[in-house]
């Protein structure tokens, strides 16, 4: 690593000792303020145009404004703590982070030669000029522009400059690798794992302690199934070394085990209801395309545990208010009335649940409807910070539109005896700047897998209608 300022012409750095120099665009810092500490041993350069744009974006209460202020605070704290000369770079580890590189700020005017048609007054072009200058003065060292702006990266590559997207915020590069919560066992499973198997029964559940090559890859609360003449489904309860304990499931496909009149229509729905009805599971995530039954199953399980067996005091439902089309403007009324247009899914599912009891009659159904509504509270995300929910069944709908930070804010609201259920479809993200890989829902599914008190199921089969299934497949 060179100790010279990036502004001064640097001596060629031996290729073996060369670390990269990343030039950060403003949108990277406004997307993730901690990006300053995410480049490990490599150095970071901040052009003056980036600092100017940060300053212009600091006003307001939006997520972007908060991130801009936080990035400025990080830079200020590092400058205050470091005794190094600014021209020599500020050690990034002075902030107590794992990054071992240095942060360089532009300390003098840089005139990078760019094509005459690119207006010099535009901040993006000023940053491109800085990248061009650094590339020339630091050869053969790699100088790379990091930007979330696709057009900025296209312009950089057109000028022969190296440019990359910022990937560190992504929980997964490929969402096809996302944990599904279920695993199909090979046909030879019992042959490979049946030796020295122990089996016992406890409170109506059969447990199997198995040993074999597959057990080391199993996760706690993962569902396993085996098709064939004798179909087998179980949940992984424990795993230690080369042994695992599998427990049989409650069959929610049978009418005698119906939850608020709802029975599971397929294997994954059965898995989901086993998680939703288990008092040992505090956090459940359900993924699936439209019509797979996420909301209906969750509401049925919530009502059953609030009204039939009072495990929770009430259901709290919230969701991100991101319009699909043009916004219709401000909505009148109280918090619940403002949230009402966003809660069409809740109303539709309550209508289904209310018609499951055919013997109640019109009066009985009206009384049930009023009772249900008194135990379901609809809350806005805007007023969640600082709250603590005790013995509540908290449902976060459309969770794919949340950032990881917002997801953390919501899940940490859970007090003693509260269950949190996140529902979503990562193929339907409406929030700008969020992708399938960086969604808060992807983030929590990946981080919570294998925890003893959390479970996840990806629902595969649509159960809404043949029209909805065909549309989801071909459109």
Give a description of the structure.
The chain is α/β, with parallel strands linked by helices. It has 3 domains: 21-164, 5'-nuclease (Rossmann fold, 3-Layer(aba) Sandwich); 175-248, Elongation Factor Tu (Ef-tu), domain 3 (Beta Barrel); 266-474, P-loop containing nucleotide triphosphate hydrolases (Rossmann fold), CATH 3.40.50. The protein contains 14 helices and 18 strands. The strands form 3 sheets. Strands 3-4-2-1-5-6 form a 6-stranded mixed β-sheet. α5 (150-158) links the parallel β5 (143-146) and β6. α2 runs antiparallel to α4 (123-137), α7 packs parallel to α8 (294-308) and α12 (404-411) crosses α13. The chain starts with 20 loop residues before the first strand and ends with a helix.
The first-level CATH class of the largest domain is given as: Alpha Beta
CATH architecture of the largest domain: 3-Layer(aba) Sandwich
- Physical arrangement of strands within the biggest beta sheet: 3-4-2-1-5-6
Radius of gyration of CA atoms, rounded to a whole number = 27 Å
Structural class: alpha/beta
Q: Shape, please?
A: globular
CATH-wise, what's the superfamily of the largest domain?
P-loop containing nucleotide triphosphate hydrolases
Number of strands: 18
In total, the number of domains comes to 3
Count of helical segments?
14
**Share in helix:** 25-40%
CATH fold-level topology of the largest domain: Rossmann fold
Major β-sheet annotation: 6 strands, mixed
């Amino acid at each position: 690593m060179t100790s010279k300022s990036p502004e001064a012409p640097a001596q060629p750095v031996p290729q073996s000792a060369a670390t990269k120099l990343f030039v950060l665009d403003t949108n990277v810092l406004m997307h993730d303020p901690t990006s300053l500490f995410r480049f490990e041993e490599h150095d970071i350069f901040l052009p003056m145009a980036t600092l100017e744009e940060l300053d212009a974006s600091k006003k307001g209460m939006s997520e972007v404004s908060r991130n801009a202020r936080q990035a400025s605070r990080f830079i200020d704290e590092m400058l205050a703590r470091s005794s190094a000369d600014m021209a020599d770079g500020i050690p990034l580890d002075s902030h107590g982070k794992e990054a071992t590189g240095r942060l360089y700020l532009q300390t003098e005017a840089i005139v990078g030669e760019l094509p005459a048609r690119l207006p010099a007054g535009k901040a993006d072009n000023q940053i491109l000029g800085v990248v061009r200058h650094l590339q020339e003065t630091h050869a053969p060292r790699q100088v790379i522009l990091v930007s979330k702006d696709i057009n900025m990266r296209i312009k950089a590559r057109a000028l022969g400059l190296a440019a990359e997207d910022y990937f560190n915020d992504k929980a997964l590069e490929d969402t096809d690798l996302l944990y599904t919560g279920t695993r199909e066992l090979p046909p030879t499973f019992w042959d490979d794992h049946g030796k020295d198997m122990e089996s016992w029964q406890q409170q109506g559940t059969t447990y199997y302690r198995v040993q074999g090559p597959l057990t080391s890859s199993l996760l706690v609360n993962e569902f396993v199934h085996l098709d064939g003449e004798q179909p087998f489904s179980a949940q992984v309860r424990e795993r230690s070394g080369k042994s695992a304990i599998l427990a049989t499931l409650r069959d929610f496909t049978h009418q005698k085990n119906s939850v608020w009149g709802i029975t599971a229509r397929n294997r994954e729905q059965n898995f989901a209801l086993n998680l939703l009805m288990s008092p040992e599971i505090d956090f459940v995530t359900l993924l699936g395309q439209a019509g797979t039954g996420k909301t209906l199953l969750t509401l049925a399980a919530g009502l059953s545990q609030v009204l039939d067996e009072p495990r929770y005091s009430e259901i709290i439902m919230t969701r991100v208010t991101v319009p699909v089309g043009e916004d219709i403007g401000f909505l009148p009324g109280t918090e619940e009335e403002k949230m009402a247009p966003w809660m069409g899914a809740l109303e539709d599912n309550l209508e289904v649940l209310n018609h499951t009891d055919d013997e109640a009659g019109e009066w009985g159904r009206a009384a049930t409807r009023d009772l249900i509504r008194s135990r379901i509270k609809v809350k806005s995300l805007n007023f969640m910070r600082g709250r603590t929910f005790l013995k509540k069944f908290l449902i976060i709908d459309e969770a794919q539109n949340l950032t990881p930070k917002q997801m953390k804010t919501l899940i940490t609201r859970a007090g003693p005896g509260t269950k949190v259920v996140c529902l979503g479809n990562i193929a339907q993200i409406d929030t700008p700047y969020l992708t399938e890989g960086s969604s808060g829902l992807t983030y929590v599914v990946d981080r919570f897998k294998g925890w003893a008190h959390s479970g996840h199921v990806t629902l595969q089969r649509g159960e809404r209608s043949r029209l909805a299934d065909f549309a989801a497949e071909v459109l």
